[in-house]
Amino acid sequence: xxxxxxxxxxxxIGLTWMIAIISxxxxxxxxxxxxxxxxxxxxxxxxxxxxxxxxxxxxxGWAIDPVNTILAGLWGFVHGFIAGFLIAFxxxxxxxxxxx
Length: 100
Prior knowledge:
3 helices, elongated
């Protein structure tokens, strides 16, 4: 049986989470660029503003400007890498325990 790579899973989840944070942040900035004068419905703008406030707690500056959004994405990569690494770590432990 092949060994489960903790580093590879950490990289995969970290990169996926970073891409999700950056792409969602740029989309939120696009929606909010004209404020309430845009063609987006008021409820959509309100929802994005609330989401930006909540998502900005662990990722400060997210969807405020491009530089802060990319920095938040890099911080998200760290979070995703640690999560993926720990998932693989605990998986390998439980695999040994329940294989008996």
